[in-house]
Amino acid sequence: MGSQVVEAKLAELGLTLPEVVPPLAAYQPAVVSGAYVYTAGQLPMVQGKLPVTGKVGGEVTPEEAKDLARTCALNALAAVKSVVGDLDRIARVVKVVGFVASAPDFTGQPAVLNGASELLGAVLGEKGVHARSAVGVAVLPLDAPVEVEIQVEIVQD
Question: Measuring CA to CA, how many Å separate 78 from each of 49, 54, 106, 135, 141?
Answer without folding.
Answer: 16, 25, 30, 23, 20
